[in-house]
Amino acid sequence: MRRAFAFLVMIVLLLVLGISSSDQAMRWVSKARYQQEGNLGSDKYRYGDLYGLSYLPDFRMLKDTSLITNQFTSEGLRDMDLYILGDSYLYSYIHMDTTNFARSKQVVFRKWSEGTAGAIVLQPTGNKKVLLIESVERNMGTLIDMLRVRAHLEGYKAPLTWNESFNATLADALYDPLLEQNIDFTLFNFQGLSFLKSLKAQVNLNLFHRTTPEVVLSRDHQFLYMKETMDSLQKGSSFYPISAEDIQVLLARMTKIEQYALSRGFDEVIFSFIPNPVAITQTESRRTNQLIVSLSKANHGQLHILDPTQVLAKGGKSYFFKSDSHWNQQGAQAWLNQLNQYLIKL
Amino acid sequence: MVFNSLQFLVFFGIVTAAYFLLAHRFRWMLLLVASCYFYMAFQPIYLGILGFTIVVDYYAGIYLERFEGRAKKLFLALSLMANIGVLAVFKYYAFFTGNFMHAASYFGYTLQIPQLSILLPIGLSFHTFQAMSYTIEVYRGHQKAERNFGIYSLYVMFYPQLVAGPIERPQNLIHQFYEEHVWDVERVKAGLFQMAQGLFKKVVIADRLAILVDAVYGSLAIQSGGNLVLASVFYSFQIYCDFSGYSDLAIGAAKVMGFDLMTNFRAPYLAKSIPDFWRRWHISLSTWFKDYVYFSLGGNRVSIPKWYFNIMVVFIISGFWHGASWNFVIWGALHGVFQLIGITVSRRFPALSPENARGIYFRFLQLWTFVLVTFAWVFFRLSHFADIKLYAQRLVIWNVDAPLGLHVNEIVLSLLLILGLLFWEHRSTNKISPKLWLLPMILLAIYFLGVFSLKQFIYFQF
Fold it and tell me: Taking Cα atoms as reference points, which of A154, A140, A151, A339 lies closest to residue A254?
């Protein structure tokens, strides 16, 4: 009996480890669990990614996951191949096809996270080839980097020392870097356990005025933000102090990236940076660093920079989810309209 | 793979279940493979360093047994040099070369010694000392050389105590790998209880206190004396709960499988003197230094100046063991000085000796010892002289309102947890055994009050 119990424990845990270590298995399990209603389903993202981290009951608001479609269906001039290097601010809200983008004859979208997917192949058409590089403010410092862009445009991989290579090969074979969160998902992310998580979140908020480490509550308690965007010690924060020199460094990096992309066969390169939600909602008493606005001003029209700050500011809080780190469909729509105007004039 | 992670929970469950399912003769192999996997979770390449010291010490043990006289001494010296050499390269190279260049520049010379861009292998000082313990004990004839290479490797690599101790002695551990451990419900319960206790200390107390400590020590320039005192007291308990929490997890995990590891802490903040503190704090290391360094220097069976010298040497080396930085040396030296002052006072005024203390005087000595230890921890926590100077300057400024990083309710909770810990340890030292009904309560408290930030254990860096 005891041996049977030990055997059962071992098999179950080996299964958990196996599933949590495999990207494919995790994709399958996640899909099944997200689709499932009831106690065995998962509500990690159903109510917003920040709710899924904090489980604060006041932010349990069903998230609209519909995609924006058919924004630019006119048969007008279609003379552009649009290549987009972007993040979840785009692909989670906008259908990436020609019906949404002005002048586009073809739309090719590549996620930043697919850095090992190989080179983006330019189609041999006579159309104007435009590269749109998009990133949310908090990731700009990391993503606006030549090596990362090269990884996507030519499949470049930075050479590793033998030590790094050995470590990386062995670590890849043995451990999934997401193992911890995958095990958490596999073992504990059930709707049936949400009440416990909510209770814990409430106890910590009411007693200690604290949420989960990754999430910060806005001053007016209306929004959840990623801590990374609020902590003035972190570079992705809207409160991280920036100097004129930092702006020049960033512009220099962008100029190099533009030159590189032009040399790879693109005709135009557009950069668009989405402000962190707190930079638009302005719920805090502190002043934000206005990174994107400063960047646009210092650019003096040399690079194509699409700054949506003003457009988003018009909608303010109404353009962002309260329990998610992203904008909502209205915010995405406002940006898309601005982009299409820009593309028409390009 | 830290002990306060879900990865470890799964790993531990699989290894323990497999351990009891396997026939006895295969168990050491399972533990060895599991230990390699555990260590490689931190940095796979450093398994090579462990492999090097294992091979050297394995053969050194065999040759130490085979030879006598000068040859025997030579093999011991070779083994110690190999182990200390590894420490010197990976832990102390940057310190020595940096100080050498600094000293040269002081005398007007400019030296450029190439630096190694290497990360300190995790737990290096722990497993190196454990390996040295083996060759020294074989040399002294207290331990037979281990012929099974796998078992010897497991002695150095046994995963519960691989990265932060307790630093075992071969006489205590090696024979246990040969013994067949059966599933003992009481033992498993006791092991799980100790693990839960360790996890509580780590995620409920240490990682909570760390929030305030990091906030205050990270902004010394704007802090007040009151905040610094509070942060220093909290740091004393943070480091204790962090390290003893790790030890509880290690000892408990080993106990579940039937292994007895040595006790590493015995209510150190209830100590009545600095020597008493060191009999209760990181016992596996303090006894290591006592057995292999202090006694080798002659211990207290020498003239008084030589005795004092021996004490200072041991404490300075102990400080240096913790880290390649002057602040650790100062920390160790401070403990040495406190001990010398204590010895001197006790010799001149026997009535004041801690050994004779009773009642209020006894409590006063406990408090005084805690104050001294806490003062020394400041040097342990601050690695730059500029920070130590700033700390001293801000200590006398009391009328500023600086951020503490924790809400007042949480500070109160932290203080209650500290008091609860002291009370619990006081009861435990009076031999009152823990009740099983506490186990689910501890687990619930860990869930609701734990700070789950996957914060690394402080002593892993050593």
Answer: A140
CATH of the domain at A123: 3.40.50
If asked whether residues B129 and B217 sit together in one domain, one would say no
The answer to whether the bond into B166 is cis (omega within 30° of 0) is: yes
Of the residues B4, B8, B16, B21, the best mutation for testing chain A's interface (the one with the most A CB atoms within 10 Å of its CB) is B21
User: Helix, strand or coil for residue B26?
Assistant: helix
Q: With an 8 Å Cβ cutoff, are B18 and A13 in contact? A: no
- The amino acid present at B425, given as its one-letter code, is E
Tokens of A284: 């805090």
Eight-class DSSP state of B224: -
CA dihedral B236, B242, B245, B246 (to 10 degrees): -140
Between chains, do A213 and B451 touch, taking CB under 8 Å as contact? yes
Closest A-chain CA to B23:
A3
Judge if B303 and B382 occupy the same domain: yes
Q: Do A208 and B409 touch (CB under 8 A)?
A: yes
Q: Which of A251, A260, A299 is nearest to A85 (CA)?
A: A260
Which of B14, B17, B44 is opposite residue A17, by nearest beta carbon? B14
- What are the pLDDT tens digits along chain A (346 aa)? 778 888 898 999 999 988 888 888 888 888 888 887 777 888 777 888 899 888 998 988 888 888 888 777 776 778 899 999 999 999 999 999 888 898 888 999 999 888 777 888 888 888 899 999 999 999 998 899 998 999 998 887 777 777 667 766 766 666 677 888 888 888 888 888 888 889 999 988 888 888 888 899 999 999 999 999 998 888 999 999 999 999 999 999 999 999 999 999 999 999 999 999 999 998 998 899 999 999 999 998 889 999 999 999 999 999 999 999 999 999 999 999 999 999 988 8
Closest CA to B126 of B288, B326, B342: B288
Closest approach of B46 to chain A, Cα-based (Å): 9
Q: Write the CA distances from B130 to A221, A297, B121, B134, B318, integer angstroms.
A: 53, 61, 15, 7, 15
Overall number of domains in chain A: 1
Query: For tokens 């904008």, what's the residue?
Result: A327
Domain endpoint, select from B119, B153, B180? B180
Show the domain range for B337: 186-461
CA B233 to centroid of chain Cα atoms? 19
- Asked if B366 and B271 count as a contact pair (C-beta separation under 8 A), the reply is yes
Indicate if B407 belongs to the active site: no
DSSP H/E element including A1: none
Which string of DSSP letters, residue by residue, matches A234-275? STTSTTS---HHHHHHHHHHHHHHHHHHHHTT-SEEEEEEEP
B436 shares its domain with B301: yes
Which residues does chain B have within 8 Å of residue A203's beta carbon, measured at their own beta carbons?
448
Residues of A in contact with B407 (CB under 8 A): 208-210
